[in-house]
Design goal:
about 170 residues, alpha/beta, Rossmann fold, five-stranded parallel beta sheet, 6 helices
Amino acid sequence: MVSEQRVRVAVVMGSDSDLETMQSCVEQLREFGLEATVRIISAHRTPDVAADFAEKAASNGIEVIIAAAGMAAHLAGALAARTVLPIIGVPLAAKAGLGGVDALLSTVQMPPGVPVATMGIGKAGAKNAALLAVQILALADPELREKLVEHKKAQARKVRDKDAAVS
């Protein structure tokens, strides 16, 4: 009997132009055996959809939401205002923005009571968002915790191998 995998992470972004950057997040989650619900929802252009998504996420089985946006970057905060789930924000650089610094400040400067864990700008931040989501889920999932331990060991091996190659 094949069991259907439960989707525990949502990756939400403000625009389809963010897909390329956030693909690294989705791929990092898959490396840990996690599939994600991927959505394009705008805090500004579809605020009712954003509110509805956040309010129903937990009842839909989502345990962590990763929200990526550029420029004003209100998506993560808008979702955090409507759920008690952990929200991980990924600020993105937009063509018309300030290299992502505008999005970083919009994401990280949340008022008291509406926390958003904020990653770095762009693809590195997207990968780290996936890893933080895995770490959060691993608190109650020994199998994921073991995969994280192995991931850290593999990272260390890669650095040691590169060191040996240049020494």
